[in-house]
Structures are given as structure tokens and as C-alpha cells.
Design brief:
Blueprint (H helix, E strand, L loop, with lengths): L16 H10 L4 H25 L6 E3 L6 H14 L1 E5 L4 H17 L5 E2 L6 E2 L5 H8 L1 H11 L23 E4 L11 E2 L19 H4 L32 E8 L10 E3 L3 H10 L3 E3 L16 E2 L5 E3 L8 E3 L37 E5 L4 E4 L10 E9 L3
């Protein structure tokens, strides 16, 4: 994988001056610890990125619905899910049921032409929340069983925390009918469930969700501990479409087969590492955005050539990064009220994001997983359907 080709040269967006003060205070008296932890993180990212690049979508944990009650297989699946932050549960819905729901959905859309869809010239993402097939899917005992199984991955460090992993709660979301070969709804890489709130004391800071990361101990950060997430505010700016609830997962129910590269999500399956990078990146500046164009051979790289010389320049090499002496107001990719995105406001980490296996029917991921929609190049003549069902637990 050519890492340099993934770098985004666009400039990040400066925010109000209070964010510079906020950043400065967050790491005050811990600058050395934070810097050393970031360099450890970069080395870990490089190792993990190389592994993902070599293995591709095979790194995404997958389990058959009929195996979720097999203790050995379930344990292995959950261990992999904790590391990756994304997984696929297959065959949750029988093929005949999925086909029936799909046809019912298409008929409902045809019978309700007033339903708003995006884009307007070729509607594919519909503002439909309570169509009969969506209601049936949300109440289906097999989907509830799969949700309950996935929720069991979470734990709470506070035994008195008012939270349940046994009672799935689903709130309504839209549905999407993908048109073969469509490229009109391609999205940038982004992170859901809050933006600048991750750095704000009244946001995620209210419960110290990321305190270990900001104190130079990202290795101690546990993405699956629900306790530090129960009293936070993820929507300080009350933008339309923002979510104020704690979502254990976001799920997609696929009613059609999706060949690889035909519209499935592309994710960054290194949950702890990518989260720590997202949080610490704004405190540092790369010496070169494109090291391959600026560095002398042997100064930095990820591969060793003849005589031990580096042969490929590496954006993630620790030598390419310096802790900002004076913190800026920039939070790369994050602006108030909008989910963090890789463009136009951030410089990419160069982390590869392999496509998940495209044959759910349930794809789950934590709210802090980085993902983006791939371009769709489908060879089918029939549209594919995915419904998004969000599952928040009690706060």
C-alpha cells in the first residue's frame, strides 16, 4: 500500500482561541509523557498498519449467527471485536425473509413518492423511519438476539453504573437503496458521536473518558468500558442530526449481497490505536506532510533496504513529528457541530482502512471508529438495501 498517496494536503481549520488554551491546559506538566506516548503510538500504528495492509479484510472478525451461543467461538469473536471495533454477524435473517423485506421496502417507496430521498435527482437515501419492513426488522427476535450478543462485549468498571447489556433499545433511522455503479453518495472518512466534544471539559471530559490518553498512557485506555461514557455530552452545539445518546454500537442490516468494493463501509479496524491518534494528533505537527518528497534516503522509513538503509519514507515515523511548543486552536478535522472528517480540515494519518467483508447482515462498530463510504462499482442490475438501526443503552 502506498501510504504517501493517502495523505491529505489540505489545510486544517483554526478554531476560536479558547481551544488553544484548552489544549495547553490538558497536557500541562505532562508534555514529556504525552510526547513519548505519541511516539510509542506511532510505532504501534506502523506495525498494525502493516499487518492490516497484508491481511486486508481478513482482520475483520466474523461469526455466523448460529455460532453466537457457542462459548468458544463467541469468546474468540469478542476478543477480536474488542481489538478491531468492527465486526460482521452473518445469516442473522434467513434469505427468504431478507428478500421479502427488500421487496416490501421497494413497494413501500414506490407507493409513497412524496418520501424525501437524497440525492434529489436519483433518490437512494430515504427519510423513511417507520416503513413496515423497518419495523419488522427492529422487532425481529434474531436481530435482538444478535444485538444482545454484541452488547455483551461491553463492561463497566463501576458496578453501580445504571446500564444494561441485556436489553437492546433501538431508535429509528433511515434506509438506503443503493443503485448499481452509483458514486453520488460517497462520503469522506469521518468519526461519529461528537466532534470537538472529545477535547472539551463539558463534553467527553465530564467523565474523563480519554483521561489516560491525555496523560500519556494511551495503552491504558479501554474503549469498552461504558462507565466513563454515561455522563458525557456529545452534542454541545445541538446541530441537526447530532446524537445525545450513548450508543453501544451502530448497526447496518443488509438485505442484499454486496460484492467486495461495491458500497460496503471502509473502516479503520484498530480501535484503541486510531482513537488515541485522533485525540493526540492536534498536539503535534509533522515535519513533512509527504516525507517521500523531502527526506534523504535513510533518514526515516518503514522498510529496510540494502545495507540497512530505509527504502520507503514514512509519515508515521516518530522522527517526522514534534510536539507543538505553542499549542494552536486546531483540532484536525473537528469543528463545532460537525463530525470529524478527513477533508478538508485534516491531514490523514496514512492509516490503511480495508473494506469490511461486504455480506453482513449485521455490521457493528463503536461510535469512535473511523470509517468512510467507498465508491460503489456494482455489477448487479437490482438495487441493494441497507437499513441503519442505532442501538443506544441507558444513560
Amino acid at each position: 500500500m502506498n501510504m504517501a498517496s493517502m495523505l491529505d494536503p489540505s489545510e486544517p481549520i483554526p478554531l476560536s482561541s479558547r481551544f488553544a488554551k484548552l489544549k495547553r491546559n490538558m497536557i500541562a506538566c505532562r508534555e514529556k509523557d504525552v510526547a513519548e506516548s505519541f511516539y510509542r503510538l506511532l510505532r504501534a500504528l506502523r506495525r498494525e498498519a502493516d499487518d492490516i495492509a497484508a491481511r486486508g479484510s481478513d482482520v475483520i472478525p466474523t461469526i455466523d449467527y448460529f455460532d453466537i451461543h457457542d462459548s468458544e467461538k463467541a469468546f474468540a469473536f469478542r476478543e477480536a471485536l474488542r481489538r478491531r471495533g468492527v465486526a460482521v454477524i452473518k445469516r442473522v435473517v434467513p434469505l427468504t425473509v431478507a428478500q421479502a423485506w427488500k421487496e416490501e421496502t421497494l413497494e413501500y417507496i414506490a407507493d409513497n413518492p412524496h418520501a424525501r430521498g437524497h440525492p434529489s435527482h436519483d433518490p437512494q437515501l430515504f427519510d423513511l423511519y417507520w416503513s413496515p419492513s423497518q419495523v419488522r426488522a427492529r422487532a425481529d427476535s434474531r436481530l435482538l438476539d444478535a444485538q444482545r450478543f454484541a452488547m455483551g462485549t461491553w463492561h463497566s468498571s463501576d458496578e453501580n453504573a445504571l446500564i444494561s447489556t441485556e436489553c437492546p433499545v433501538v431508535y429509528a433511522d433511515r434506509l438506503r437503496v443503493r443503485t448499481p455503479d452509483d458514486v453520488s453518495l460517497v462520503g469522506n472518512a469521518h468519526v461519529d458521536n461528537g466532534s470537538v466534544e472529545r477535547w472539551e471539559p463539558d463534553g467527553y471530559g465530564a467523565s474523563g473518558t480519554y483521561s489516560t490518553v491525555f496523560s500519556g498512557r494511551w495503552e491504558d485506555y479501554d474503549p469498552w468500558d461504558s462507565s466513563p461514557r454515561l455522563n458525557i455530552t456529545t452534542d454541545l452545539y445541538n446541530r441537526s442530526g447530532s446524537c445525545s445518546m450513548f450508543r453501544m454500537f451502530q448497526g447496518f442490516l443488509s438485505l442484499s449481497a454486496l460484492p467486495a468494493g461495491s458500497g460496503a463501509l471502509t473502516v479503520c479496524p484498530m480501535l484503541q490505536l486510531s482513537t488515541a491518534y485522533l485525540l493526540l494528533r492536534p498536539f503535534f505537527t509533522p515535519r513533512y506532510k509527504n516525507p517521500a518528497a523531502n527526506m534523504n534516503d535513510g533518514e526515516m522509513g518503514m522498510g529496510m533496504g540494502m545495507g540497512g538503509r530505509r527504502t520507503e519514507r514514512d509519515f508515521l515515523h516518530p522522527n517526522n513529528w514534534n510536539l507543538n511548543v505553542t499549542q494552536t486552536s486546531i483540532l484536525h478535522g473537528a469543528v463545532p457541530g460537525y463530525c470529524p472528517t478527513s477533508s478538508p480540515a485534516t491531514t490523514s494519518s496514512g492509516i490503511p482502512t480495508p473494506c469490511t467483508p461486504p455480506t453482513p447482515p449485521i455490521l457493528t462498530r463503536t461510535p469512535t471508529r473511523i470509517h468512510h463510504h467507498r465508491r460503489h462499482h456494482q455489477a448487479r442490475t437490482r438495487p441493494s438495501i441497507q437499513t441503519s438501526t442505532r442501538r443506544p443503552a441507558s444513560r
